[in-house]
User: What shape does this take?
Amino acid sequence: MSSGSAAFASSSLGAPPEPPAGVRASETLRLLLTAAGLFVALSSAFFILIGAAPLELFRALFEGAFGSGFAISEVLVKAAPIVLCALATALPARLGLISVGAEGQLAAGAIAGTGFVLAAGDRFAVLTLPVMLLSAAAGGAAYGAFAGVLRARLNVNETISTLLLNYLSPLALNYLVYGPWKDPDSLGWPATIAFPAAARLPTYFDTRLHFGLVLGFALVLIAQLVMSRTRTGLALDLLRSGPRLAERAGLSFGARAIATLALGGACAGLAGIAEAAVIEGRLQSGVAAGAGYSGFLVAFLARGSLLAMLPLALVVASLAAAGDNLQLSAGLPSSIVYLLQGFLFASALVAYGRRARGDSVSEVA
Assistant: This one.
């Protein structure tokens, strides 16, 4: 990533100085509408290219995401890990760090939480669930902190290190579920034994909607309060925008780089164990695959606003939830969802890039 693109991504993911609320709201709305228009145009062009009717596929997308109570509940289910993984990107971004490691941190958390469950079973009774969650958060935090140590001590670019680390923990997870943790009664399916009831998160309304979504929304609200109302948020803003001044004030960039990457990793780790404990009921290969990258997309679209990640996560989750309906109604592969998310990301890049170039021209003028 070039220095120019890194600076653009940092300003998009982080929280740069903002104009008055009214101007900021209208500008954000304009950018979102521009990105939405580009997304529709790109998607329509692709649908025409493959010989499909765009209006029919957009209708299938809408029905797959919002056409029934079950569809809406599935959108919320898919939003749970995305919100938590978006925090894994947004928290380090507050310091100007560009982390794309939520995918690996999610797997690390799933491994750590499952390790506790397999070792302890339900012997801890009511404490099983909270200790499992803490174990998963610790696993994800350790994985994120490792990238922070590389950045703070060896000046290794966190974008590169977190991207490469995305490959290690999923491979370790595969080794475990294919090897020492494999359920001998699974008839060849690579998965652990089923989690005990004490290790299952609560679900709601007779659906798969679970406590992970509540946890994700709560953590976003807590993070918003911390970043906007405490000295911690002020320190991160100062370190990002005025590092020399921050150093004179006694603030350590390295320590906070490790801390923010660890906190973000903890959030992604919670996403991993929530998916394993509720959606699958056991740890298996490919747990919540793609949620980390979807979380990065959400954090990017939010442009530093933690609260904006909540509705944006629902938008991205609706694309994922609609994939099944596209398979049934149009015979398209499920991977079309990732292509549509790519179109959304590209549309945002174009819309925000034009705005950034406009700002640069106005500053020069």
